[in-house]
Design brief:
InterPro entries: RNApol_su_b/EpuA (IPR024596). The protein has 60 residues and is mainly alpha-helical. 77% of the residues lie in helices and 0% in strands.
Length: 60
């Protein structure tokens, strides 16, 4: 009985973690596209590899 309860709890926690990760990913996409649009650029430029090279250049 204890193992079934622990397994159910673990599944429930993993489900919530997955939902949070998906929500964070969607927020990143929407926020990035909105930021590009507010900056006067094409929102789909957020997906351009040159944009990400520029972002990652700050870390080196």
């Amino acid at each position: 009985m204890l193992l079934k309860t622990d397994s159910h709890h673990a599944r429930k926690v993993l489900k919530h973690v997955l939902i949070v990760l998906i929500a964070a990913f969607l927020a990143l996409l929407i926020g990035g596209m909105a930021g590009m649009a507010l900056g006067g650029q094409n929102p789909f430029r957020f997906f351009d590899p040159a944009t990400w090279q520029h972002v990652f250049s700050f870390w080196h």
